[in-house]
Amino acid sequence: MTDPNLENRAPKDLPKAPDAPSVFERDGEDTHFGIPEETVNAVILALEANQDQLVRELMAPLHFADAADLLETLSVDDRRQLLEVAHEVLDPEFYSELDETVRDEAVDIIGLDAVAETVAELDIDDAVEFVDELDEHEQKHVLEAIPAADRTLIEQGLSYPEDSAGRLMQREVMTVPKFWSVGETIDYMRTNADKSATDFGNIFYDLVVVDPRHTPLGTVPLSVLLQSQRPVAITDIMHEEMKLVPVDLDQEEVAFLFRQRDLVSAPVVGDDGRLVGMITIDDVVDVIDEEAEDDILRLGGLQEDDLYAAAVDTTRSRFSWLFVNLMTAILASSVIGFFQGTIEQVVALAVLMPIVASMGGNAGTQTMTVAVRALATKELTTTNAMRQIGKETLVGGINGILFAVLMGNVAWLWFSSPGLGIVIGLAMIINMLVAGVTGAAIPIMLERRGIDPALASSVFLTTVTDVVGFLVFLGLGTAFLL
Amino acid sequence: MTDPNLENRAPKDLPKAPDAPSVFERDGEDTHFGIPEETVNAVILALEANQDQLVRELMAPLHFADAADLLETLSVDDRRQLLEVAHEVLDPEFYSELDETVRDEAVDIIGLDAVAETVAELDIDDAVEFVDELDEHEQKHVLEAIPAADRTLIEQGLSYPEDSAGRLMQREVMTVPKFWSVGETIDYMRTNADKSATDFGNIFYDLVVVDPRHTPLGTVPLSVLLQSQRPVAITDIMHEEMKLVPVDLDQEEVAFLFRQRDLVSAPVVGDDGRLVGMITIDDVVDVIDEEAEDDILRLGGLQEDDLYAAAVDTTRSRFSWLFVNLMTAILASSVIGFFQGTIEQVVALAVLMPIVASMGGNAGTQTMTVAVRALATKELTTTNAMRQIGKETLVGGINGILFAVLMGNVAWLWFSSPGLGIVIGLAMIINMLVAGVTGAAIPIMLERRGIDPALASSVFLTTVTDVVGFLVFLGLGTAFLL
Question: Shortest Cα distance from B94 to chain A (angstroms)?
């Protein structure tokens, strides 16, 4: 399916390749970055007209990040066609910017030899990430096809646990012996300049001062180095309070550290305390994004971002979550089943029962969301866990009373039954109180048991609020209205 | 409420102030950063015993970010006591790290004169943020009490729109005229060194090369400058493809740019194209966090992070969302109300109807979550919107058929009624199809109308899936089972 506006255009309307986008585009009030829609449409038209040369001319001037965004907005067929005709004009870093699903597609299209060439040109951390996502036989093929020095570095990278600091780090670190001066350091950097330095291949922000064992003693921001006099000892300007990252540390902890301390880079050390690499903020920003995205998706009942996945894969991956929910829904329904006799006599109970369950579910979801987020940011700890559960119980109770009065009156007027109003009011107080307690307690308990609270909390929560909601409302109805 | 484990300890167990935490702590497998629980407990015990001097000794060696985290985990009373006895040992930056609610409390406790002293010592961007959150009369008091030069800068900062690039930027930028060489640049930086440079007051990562009008021509990463030979012209090593940020650009767009291009800093320009400041990654990381947090909270039905708010404020802020949900729940119930006659005759419909509504709601939430997230990251655009809606309709339809077969058989066996099985199966197919379409279409339509999709989508969605679920299931039941 393509944009209907496009299909109406005649092929003769095919646009020329526009000038490379200006560095500073303003578009009325809506100044924004990202790939302009005209460029996307021009590429789609060129693809439809099979104007391969035009496609290449349109793609070549784009920044690799824009090119990746552009590819991702296309349909599966257009993606394939674009890669087939234009992959040779794309920067290797283009592939690092792609979503995993789309990168898998790209590997199939461009072939393993082109993948090997691409991987050989990437920074080691990006190369490791790319290779890691390949199948075993693809990995073997690609690793064999790239130069031995790079291969060793990539294999070393792959040896660190997934999602660990070792996977995020750069292996090349600018280190300085502790007895050097500022002048000696600058002279050394200038003489031993990385040839790629001036084409921005290897940008760094801090030096690491090391002892002869290669143990980090401190870091020196480059701006501090540049503003210091040449004779000053490097140890006089180094930052000793640096945080050292163990190479096997989980990336979530790395992200927490960078965020909490506003770092741009941090030295990574092995078990023996020696420097093995450096993590820079750009890789951590990706992790921060990923962690937030994971939480959002899991709270929404998804295992992964399936925006680019084929419909059949998406259907399959969502099925399991829906299946779990079906089980809890059947459980809740079986509670209603016990009260069939009551419902036959007071059918108004059937009309009102979803309100009790739904208000409990929504109140519980509010509480759960705060708790899940606070656990992720380490704001909810053993110190304040009991206090939070207490507070949420209170909030649930107060809102329960407010909504009980409100809904009790509505029910009374609707069905002209004061008894029904009292029953629904009591049921709402109890269910919203329970929602407050469990909305806070479930994520905390899951976290303590090492289960991702974002993933599992909502199933438990809605089970509780549905079962309690139906049970209390219909139970009270049976007791007082028959 | 305090941790029960603590209350059992006798006062004589009061710990001594521990040594300042080591820079590299390992704790079994669970190496992690953040404030150690022992320190928190030690502070709580010292507060309970009114050992003011001990509290100060415990707080003084902490990094300001850890001190802020520690304060936030305490109860309201402990927070007040801690600030009263220890606020003079805390770094001014401590206040920048606090959650807004907690910072408001702190302002009341330490008083406006202490706030003014603190603000005067902060970086301008942090000072602006702090002052902006004060009441009008507090702002006036604080601004009058700080030195004129700082006051002007802060007032300038406040004049930019909230959440704009102007609020995020640093005003001090290291600029270089375009005719300089690498050597001249380094000599200039060394001679004009900021006195605070070596105590890490003003760290930067890029120079900006400007023309005589102060229009940015390019940026030079410090690592490139340091690795270039002294006679090289600065214009030969500058990065001309830099992205310039308009001073009134929304912070979301700034975050998108930094994330997409892996930037650590970007020059900010006024309407006339002249350089007015520089944004660095540490401020953008906060924005990225904030945006993700806002999405998570809004999807969960919350207006703001109320973790630290008092129970009464939390109750009030959650009430409005729950009220909206009550209205939609009453609407859904009124649909059931039309079918009271049917339910009296076939009470099994009342037992099963929550399943139809709940499966639609869950399937729709999955779709909506993907769409909301993809809109936030600009992955969902006009180019692929129709395609996504089409795909989600397909996914909803396929899963609808699968669950229809499953649940149809369950209903048949449970109530020994093949007709009931067919009715619930058909209702589930229709509701999950509708859930797929609306789950994708609602966020897209809201975004086009300028309404935050994370905030409003789920109300519309659950209304649709509840109303359609009850209507179709009970309607089909009335048609075929009576």
Answer: 11
Nearest-neighbour CA in chain B from A137: distance (Å): 31
Band the pLDDT of B243: cuts 50, 70, 90. confident
Reading chain A (482 residues) residue by residue, the pLDDT tens digits are 334 443 343 333 434 333 333 333 333 334 457 788 889 999 999 999 999 999 999 999 999 999 999 999 999 999 999 999 999 899 999 999 999 889 999 999 999 999 999 998 888 888 998 999 898 899 999 999 989 988 998 999 899 998 999 999 988 888 999 999 999 999 998 887 755 444 445 788 999 999 999 999 999 999 999 999 999 999 999 988 888 999 999 999 999 999 888 889 999 999 999 999 999 998 899 898 888 889 999 999 998 888 888 899 999 999 999 999 999 999 999 999 999 999 999 999 999 999 999 999 999 999 999 999 999 888 898 889 999 999 999 999 999 999 999 999 999 999 999 999 999 999 999 999 999 999 999 999 999 999 999 988 999 999 999 999 999 999 999 999 98
Chains A, B: CB contacts under 8 A, how many? Answer: 427
- Identify the residue among A41, A253, A257, A285 best suited for mutation to test binding to B, counting B beta carbons within 10 A and taking the highest: A285
Task: For A321-390, give the DSSP string.
Answer: HHHHHHHHHHHHHHHHHTTHHHHHH-THHHHHHHHHHHHHHHHHHHHHHHHHHHHHTT-S-HHHHHHHHH
Contact B75 A387 (CB under 8 A): yes
Ramachandran angles phi, psi of B330, nearest 5°: -65, -40
Amino acid at position A253, single letter: E
Whether A204 sits inside 8 A of B227 (CB atoms) is no
Instruction: Using a CB–CB cutoff of 8 Å, tell me whether B13 touches chain A.
Output: no
Query: How far lies B140's CA from each of B90, B134, B136, in Å?
Result: 24, 9, 6
B144 interface with A at CB cutoff 8 Å: no
Measured distance CA(A200)–CA(A93) in Å, rounded: 13
Which of B200, B337, B352 is opposite residue A224, by nearest beta carbon? B200
Report helix, strand and coil shares of chain A as percent, to nearest 5: 65, 5, 25
Query: pTM of this prediction?
Result: 0.86
Greatest CA separation found in chain A? Answer: 94
Between CA A231 and CA B189 the distance in angstroms is 15
- Whether residue B120 lies within 8 A of chain A, CB to CB, comes out as no
Structural domains present in chain A: 4-168 (1.25.60.10), 175-299 (3.10.580.10), 311-481 (1.10.357.20)
Q: Minimal Cα distance from B228: which residue of A?
A: A190
Name the phi and psi angles at B229, rounded to 5.
Answer: -75, 150
Interface pTM, i.e. ipTM:
0.86
Cβ distance of A340 and B332 shorter than 8 Å:
no
**Does residue A230 sit at the B interface (CB-CB below 8 Å)?**
yes
Residues of B in contact with A237 (CB under 8 A): 198
CB proximity B473 to A under 8 Å = no
| Residues A415 and A341: beta-carbon distance below 8 Å | no
* B111: region left, alpha or beta (phi > 0 left; psi from -120 to 50 alpha): left
Q: Which residues between 40 and 79 in chain A have a beta carbon less than 8 angstroms from any beta carbon of chain B?
A: 40-41, 44, 63, 65-66, 69, 72-75
- Token pair of A404, please? 């009980």
Which token pair is A19? 């000038």
